[in-house]
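Listing S7. Sequence submitted for prediction.
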Amino acid sequence: MLRNEFKVFYDYLSQNLNSIQCMTEESAKYLTDLMSGLYGTPIILPFDRPDILILFDQRTIMIEHFRYDSSEHKKGGSLLKEELRKIDQTHIEKGLKISPIKHESSMDHLKNNILDISNKHIAKYHNYIDEVQKKKGVSFGDTYRDIIQKNKEFGFATQDDSLDYNMFKKADGSMEYITPFHLKEFRDFLRQHHEIEHLFHMVKSPAEKKFIYYFHNVPKELTILEEIMNSASPSKIEEADVFYWKNNK
């Protein structure tokens, strides 16, 4: 049975192969080169610690998937959140009106949760490399042994699993999803961890449409991303500017 993390990532990727939203022009070019076969036909495989391997002729990209949300973490909170999600989804399927309502207090939880989970996973970076190295022959046999032996790159696939939908109002009045890239604290985290070279972010709309973002984390692109975020969105996302899309009861 395929691991859930792999299935989620593969599902998002397969539905957005021609519409992945890249955070910079260079990220778009780099991803196009990767997926167009310039480095060989990509082969995506499930693994365990890290969750996903993307194999090319001369490189292996190791991807660790994790979910985060914008709620305060309490015992039993995940089960309650899942029940509430099912109720809300039933309302969406019945065609009930969806409208934005102000979200008042969870931006700090959002930032803290992303950073806490990111730090836990990057602390396991060398363990991930060891696991891939140790199992390359046992798990995949001779077919992939040589590929996995070569250049190894690492990345995250983050998924916003909040009960509601984290969005903010831009200066032009349009709404935009809050991704980890919008958070200065997360961009600072990336500056400290260049071993995280690939960033995929996954989010689902109230209508169940799946979106995926990509960023190639190298120093030059971080500087460009900083400029883009400062011009296209508030340099600091205030609580008053944050909205959740939620069903009217």
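Caption to Listing S7: primary sequence and predicted structure tokens for the chain studied. The two ends are 38 Å apart (CA to CA). Residues 4-247 form one domain.
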